[in-house]
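Subject: Protein record for review, amino acid sequence with backbone structure tokens
How to read it: Take the token row as a discrete description of the fold.
Enclosed: The protein record, placed directly beneath this head.
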Amino acid sequence: MKVKTILVSQPAPTGENSPYFELEDKVKIKVDFRSFIHIEGVDSREVRLQKIDFSNYSAVILTSRNAVDHYFRIAEEMRFQVPIDMKYFCLSEAVAFYLQRYIVYRKRKIYVGVRTMTDLSKVIKKHKNEIFLLLTSDKLKVDIPKTLDKLNIKWDRAVLFKTVVTDLSDLKDVFYDILVFFSPSGIDSLFKNYPKFKQKTTRIAVFGKTTQIAAEKAGLVCNIIAPTPEAPSMTMALENYIKEINKR
């Protein structure tokens, strides 16, 4: 079957130059966006129940912008004045730059990885005397704690926010040719919202190995997989697939 419609399980892009809009023009299809999951912050009481005291740590590890937002939110709730000499270890430049919402960037000690936890671990390894706090959601890739454990450092984890399934009842009667997923949580949301979901002619696109594993474990066939050497981005993978299918 030819592809005419796609649903991306993420919020709609805020800018006008999204590659998804370019995809619409290139292959003449309709792309809709709807987040299948959303983030909810925990309160300071829940953090205390985790036996976490921010004042015990000289460095924080930030793997996402959400981690930045919720660290400073909880600090304010706890009336904890973040020390000016706090060290920030950020997974990527995007996360590091996001810190500027809360601190004077040039005056703080900020260390940045390239993209992965393995990259960042090389930087962390040079600061073994620090006491680290890893700021996360309730969902955490297993390789992150494994990587930190191998470094022989003192570290703890604080869950500051949770990944929650979004109510998709308004999409009950809507059909799409392709559903696009970026995390196992998105797959969970699909089946929590639609326990009787049958794939039938719907094509499933997945980004990342963990998403693919979750989809296949749920009984789905993954028709479009990214990243690959031929398609390092999801939009490239979609474009390649749609061009091949729609020319038939």
Observations:
- The two ends are 9 Å apart (CA to CA).
- The first strand starts at residue 5 and ends at 8.
- The CA atoms of residues 68 and 161 lie 11 Å apart.
